[in-house]
Automatic annotation (TrEMBL):
SUPFAM superfamilies for this protein: Urease metallochaperone UreE, C-terminal domain, Urease metallochaperone UreE, N-terminal domain
Keyword Iron-sulfur: no
The protein, known as: Urease accessory protein UreE
SMART domains, per the entry: UreE_N (SM00988)
Gene Ontology molecular function, alphabetical: nickel cation binding; unfolded protein binding
Ranges where the record places region Disordered: 133-163
Pfam family, one: UreE_N
Species this chain originates from: Notoacmeibacter marinus
Keywords: Chaperone, Cytoplasm, Nickel
Ranges that cross the membrane: none
Gene Ontology annotations of biological process type: protein folding; protein-containing complex assembly; urea metabolic process
Subcellular location: Cytoplasm
Encoding gene per record: ureE
Entry GO CC: cytoplasm
Length: 163
């Protein structure tokens, strides 16, 4: 079976050649053989492990761009009764070293029935949702938060086609 080959000679940031859809765990990589959603095989080879963010582009040797997409995951949406309560809930989640995506009025974490019961016991409103998961980075060199897409155009990372 022949795999699609990207034949572009110059990168076109506005029109990626393909996409790759991965959950948060699969997006946190340094080196891996990957295959895009349309079948383009390539080697991801970064200097250090980091979280590939939704909307970032992977620039292949031939100039093609593969857009990273965050796959929806089974998560819990945690809400507090007011901003102070949500902050206290965030502290409880952080105290347990759980990856968390923090928003202005909610926190997303992976589903865990023990944590869910704890949060409900603390007065949180907890809902089950399916959503992309993009947790905060750590304070000690974890590169989760090093590459946020502030301008909406994503970042480019250079990678090799894999035969």
């Amino acid at each position: 079976m022949t795999q699609p080959i990207c034949t572009s000679t110059t990168p076109n940031v506005t029109a990626p050649a393909d996409t790759i859809t991965l959950d948060e765990t699969a997006r946190h990589r340094r080196r891996a053989k990957l295959t895009s959603d349309g079948g383009i095989a390539f080697l991801l080879d970064l200097p250090k492990a980091r979280l590939l963010r939704h909307g970032e582009g992977l620039l292949l040797d031939d100039g093609c761009v593969i857009e990273v997409r965050a796959a929806p995951e089974a998560l819990m949406e945690v809400r507090g009764s007011d901003p102070r309560h949500l902050l206290a809930l965030a502290w409880q989640i952080g105290n347990r070293h759980l990856p968390a995506q923090i928003g202005a009025d909610r926190i997303l974490i992976r589903r865990d029935h023990v944590i869910e019961e704890m949060l409900k016991g603390l007065g949180a409103t907890v809902s089950h949702v399916e959503a992309p998961f993009d947790p905060e980075g750590g304070a000690y060199g974890d590169t989760h938060s090093d590459h946020h897409d502030h301008d909406g155009h994503g970042h480019m990372h250079h990678h090799h086609h894999h035969d």
